């Protein structure tokens, strides 16, 4: 197990290095003048020169990337901003604040949105999928399959806008979506994120319902499940003790990827409900051509996905005893 984790950690470091290098190339090498792109429309010659100096445009591209990479581990000095302690991802050209500090300031909103929605779509998605597989071919199965197909075809920006209009502005059933620190006011935290959780979970619930049903139906036809039935075990025991555990492997894999992506920012949901999380930060960075902020968000999102995959792989042996990690 330890050897497996060590290999995966080494692979994760290499993967993140490749992702950061490719992302750096896309952001800093493709534009003809990254400094002018970062400077914006109202750019004076003095500001342009300061940005070029801070970005190290006079250096070669490998040297620029090396300075950015070493800043993560040992920090970096900027002529206009001063010292940036490790881990340093640079300074934003929009708010003149450290990139990492700005990201961590938005992270609690994204974390609350991602974890809350994950709880909702796992409970309802996996639960409905298991019921549909248990009642295969019956009315419950057909209703669940049809509902998941309709829900998966919906778009968050459309359903979210309708939900805001009816549940918040017309019927006053739910509060205006917002983020409040959990430690400050748990009630306001819950009520402010309830509608975003429901809308974000709607699409995922549909996908997990169909996925769980298909995996359960396939697992129920496996030889070891039929053997358990032939030995006289009850249908409930066979379903939950054997089939359910065998079907959860692919679902956990997809969940790890989905959770990693959501932690990197649910852009459409945050934009729809005006939640100031990492997703909204990425959208604003694109609009303002804030290259250091975009690079920081990209690397952080990739890190979440890589770490989530390692955790998922490490959990396989607990989910399915047939899997052994060397």
Index terms:
single chain; 326 residues; mainly alpha; MetI-like fold; two-stranded antiparallel sheet; 2 strands; 2% strand; globular
State mean pLDDT (0 to 100 scale).
Answer: 84
How many H/I helical runs? Answer: 13
Biggest β-sheet strands, sense, barrel: 2 strands, antiparallel
Kindly state the number of beta strands.
2
Please explain how this structure is put together.
The chain is mainly alpha-helical and 326 residues long. The protein has two domains: 2-84, no CATH class; 105-319, Orthogonal Bundle (MetI-like fold), CATH 1.10.3720.10. The chain is 74% helix and 2% strand. It contains 13 helices and two strands. It has helices spanning 2-28, 34-39, 45-55, 61-74, 99-134, 139-152, 156-170, 186-220, 223-230, 235-263, 267-272, 278-288, 291-319, and strands spanning 76-78, 82-84. Strands 1-2 form a two-stranded antiparallel sheet. β1 (76-78) and β2 form a beta hairpin. α6 crosses α8 and α9 (223-230) runs antiparallel to α10. The longest helix is centred in the middle third of the chain and has 36 residues, at 99-134. The chain is globular, with a radius of gyration of 24 Å. The termini are close together. 32% of the residues are buried. The mean pLDDT is 84.
């Amino acid at each position: 197990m330890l050897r497996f984790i060590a290999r995966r950690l080494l692979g994760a470091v290499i993967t993140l290095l490749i992702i950061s290098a490719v992302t750096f190339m896309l952001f800093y090498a493709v534009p003809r003048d990254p400094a002018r792109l970062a400077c914006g429309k109202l750019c004076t010659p003095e500001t342009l020169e300061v940005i070029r100096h801070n970005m190290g445009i006079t250096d070669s591209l490998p040297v620029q990337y090396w300075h950015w990479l070493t800043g993560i581990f040992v920090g970096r000095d900027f002529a206009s901003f001063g010292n940036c302690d490790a881990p340093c991802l640079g300074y934003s050209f929009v708010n003149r604040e450290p990139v990492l500090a700005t990201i961590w300031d938005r992270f609690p909103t994204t974390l609350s949105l991602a974890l809350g929605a994950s709880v909702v779509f796992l409970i309802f998605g996996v639960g409905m999928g298991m019921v549909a597989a248990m009642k295969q071919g019956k009315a419950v199965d057909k209703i669940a399959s049809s509902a998941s197909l309709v829900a998966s075809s919906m778009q968050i920006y459309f359903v979210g806008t309708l939900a805001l209009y009816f549940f918040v502005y017309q019927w006053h059933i739910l509060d205006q979506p917002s983020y409040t620190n959990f430690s400050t006011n748990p009630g306001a935290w819950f009520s402010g994120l309830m509608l975003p959780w429901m809308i974000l979970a709607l699409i995922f619930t549909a996908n997990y319902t169909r996925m769980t049903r298909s995996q359960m139906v396939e697992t129920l036809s496996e030889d070891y499940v039929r053997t358990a039935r032939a030995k006289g075990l009850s249908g409930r025991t066979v379903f939950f003790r054997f089939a359910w555990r065998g079907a959860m492997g692919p679902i956990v894999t997809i969940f790890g990827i989905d959770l990693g992506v959501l932690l990197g920012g649910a852009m459409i949901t945050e934009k729809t409900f005006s939640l100031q999380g990492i997703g909204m930060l990425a959208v604003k960075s694109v609009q303002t051509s804030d290259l250091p902020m975009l690079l920081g968000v990209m690397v952080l999102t990739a890190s979440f996905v890589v770490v989530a995959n390692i955790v998922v792989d490490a959990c396989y042996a607990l989910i399915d005893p047939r899997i052994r990690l060397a």
